[in-house]
Amino acid sequence: MLRTILILVLILTIFVMPVMAQNVNDYYSRYQFLMASPGAFDDGLVGFDNPAALSLLNRMESRFFWSTDGVDASSFNNWGLFLGVPHLGFGVQRQNEGDYHVTDYRFGTSFGSPATMFGLAYGWTTGDKHLFDRKRIASVGMLMRPCRYISLGLVGNFSVEDDWNEGVAEVGLRPLGNSRLTLFADGAIERDMSFSDAPWSAGAAVEVAPGVNLVGRYFDSEAFTFGFTFNFGRNGIGAQSHYDKNQDLSSYSYHVRLGGQRKSFVPVLFDENNRYLPLDLNGTVDYHKYVLFDDKTLRFKDLLDYIRAASDDPRVAVIALNLSSLRIYGEHAWEIREELQAARAAGKKVIAFFDRAGMTNYHLASVADRVVMDPEGSLQLPGYILGRTFFKATLEKLGLGFDEWRFFKYKSAAEALSRESMSEADREQRQNFVDDAYEIVRADVCQSRNLTEKQFDDVVDNQGFLMADEALEAGLVDTLARWSDKNDVITAYYGRRLGGLAAGDLLDLALNREDWGPRPEIAIVYGLGECAMDQGIRARWLERVFLSLARNRQIKAVVFRVDSPGGDGLASDLVAEAVRECAQKKPVVISQGRVAGSGGYWISMYGNEIIAGPNTITGSIGVIGGWLYDKQIGEKLGMSADFVKRGKHAELGFGIRLPFLNMTIPSRNLDREERAEMERLIRAFYDDFVRKVADGRDLPVERVLEIAEGHFYSGLDGMEIGLVDRIGGLNTAVAAARTRAGIAPGDKIDLIEIPKYKGLFDFSPFPKIPSPFETYFENDDILRYLKVAAEHNGRALPMMIPGTYPVMDQ
């Protein structure tokens, strides 16, 4: 670190030597509103002085400065208006000297990281610019913050009219590593000017309370300034006294600001517990959404962040949720529920509203201190059921044959095509999963609502469907009201009226960053959907991501969120090996979502730690295969296929291609020799899968064989048998990654989501309108299952085919 700082200081020395030609108004006269060096305190003049500072903004920022004519506080002399948004800024500043004046304008932009920022600006002047010797200029700025203790800045101003140019260098130091004390110094030099004649300044800024700063600055001319700033959150004020070289008070300057949230004493002293956070969850919870035109998708990570930020915000007393139009899977609901439980433990009250709810949404609502139901709403608590539709007889009527290649007891993905009812093995594992899901919900609801297990079972078994007054009588809800009545409900419950606070205004999400230098980064990588090379998890892309993260020194740990039923073994192994390589260089923690079975477990097994939810579908270590072929469908449809070949088995996969469905149906089944070879390949594939799980999980092969055979487990059962290390959600995994990376509890980190969004917006409707057949295929699990089976016909698959693994969203 010391070597880096010395190199940067050397760069500063080299860059500031060749500068400015004429000396009419020096740097400090032109930037009289600056209280300190621009990169050291309060972002300077919003990029007007150093355009690189525009990278420090996270919201729109505006500031208006003005100065007095002498010491008369009621007079008005110079003024400046400075506006900025992240990476873009515009400023205008007027200076008066007697009857003459100039107005400077500047537009700037910036780019870079918190450690190294660059900026470009263009400026022009109107008024008596020749008298003030103003010119059109281009500016280049840089801010470097290699660590939390030091900030280095450079600005070069170059005339686009002649050879005039100017260079400015600055340094800021934070001895304590935070904003409580900042020391700064800067200097400006002109071409043909000796260093001894170059003007300079030095000073200090002291944070005496959150958002309250005292700033003193001394100039080489023996003049000095003393000022203060008060930040009240989104707005603030400041003032500065200017003393001349004789130490006489010469003028005052003032400013007001309006913009992004800044650290302040106001929330703690005057606004504590005066607000509530309304979360109207109208939409579908998913991992990703489009940036634009996707209001009905609720990003899962955003919801967790909102609740966590509300827990830490002293202004928030109540979190109010509207679950009336929420569509969510049980595993995601459990994770959100756990985050709400943590908020309650932190002293926040939770109020949940709903109009209609089933098992999952009521499970989420039950965590609240107060559960509110619409007076005309309904509550459906029938329990859980897992079932399947079987198509053996249907395929026979269609003239399709299906040969199931099942050599492992619990690997039941192909049963829907080969049987007319569940096998005993599949019935066993499904029943275990249903029992776990029911008992988790029952335990949580009973604890939250102060019910006995008998009371809960009685509601499920003897009522099931409850109207609002029945739910109230049964103790499942506390009061009847609507979301539109939330202010009155909150007032009645909390005892006084609270003001609403938007999620984006929560302090942890809105505060402008004040610490210097790069923060440790943890990457959250998403592996979602079928294990395939270029679709679903996009294995080729994921491999590149993990290999890149392994080399990235700024990334201290990785959380791999897996929500996949498996698929192509090659795709699964490609990702698994990349995860293994990354895990050898930095911690990789696996967070399993709704399903991480078969190939989804394959891509999980080399993580340093596997964390799953209680209802996660995990395990299913096994391989399945099958052969869909033409038994009579071609004859029934009047279709036939013909061929020429060279090679004994060349025609094995050849057959008619069904229109609309875009499926090829082979003309025949495998013969005995071919089927024996396929069994050998599947068993070899399975042995390889088992061996790799044993290696990744540090288990004996014999133990993996005992729990494998394609058996899927809930997260709870998976933990008991060693496939999962502990129960938790995405935030649990982030905390584990942080600990494994050795990041101190108080240190701030940056979370990098890969990817964070689907894209800017959904372009797909414009180039192509899907046919009814395509739409039906995408929306129907069984048809998707048939399509996947046809696409992977004859291949060994570590997969829980869509439509065959448990989904419970009642």
Q: How would you describe this structure in keywords?
A:
810 residues, alpha/beta, 14-stranded antiparallel barrel, eight-stranded mixed β-sheet, 36 strands, 29% helix, 31% strand, elongated
Q: Trace the largest sheet across and list its strands.
A: 1-2-3-4-5-6-7-8-9-10-11-12-13-14
Beta-strand segment tally: 36
Largest sheet data: 14 strands, antiparallel, barrel
How far apart the termini lie comes to 56 Å
Global Rg: 33 Å
The helix content, as a percent range, equals: 25-40%
Class by SSE composition: alpha/beta
User: DSSP helix count?
Assistant: 23
Strand residues, percent? 25-35%
User: Unreliable stretches, pLDDT < 50, 5 or more residues?
Assistant: 4-24, 767-777
Task: Round the mean pLDDT to the nearest integer and report it.
Answer: 89
What general outline do the C-alpha atoms trace? elongated
Description:
With 810 residues, the protein is α/β, with parallel strands linked by helices. 29% of the residues lie in helices and 31% in strands. The strands form six sheets. It has a 14-stranded antiparallel beta barrel. Strands 26, 27, 28, 29, 30, 34, 35 and 36 form an eight-stranded mixed beta sheet that branches. β11 (212-219) and β12 (224-231) form a beta hairpin.
Please summarize what this structure is.
By secondary structure, this protein is α/β, with parallel strands linked by helices. About 30% of the residues lie in helices and about 30% in strands.
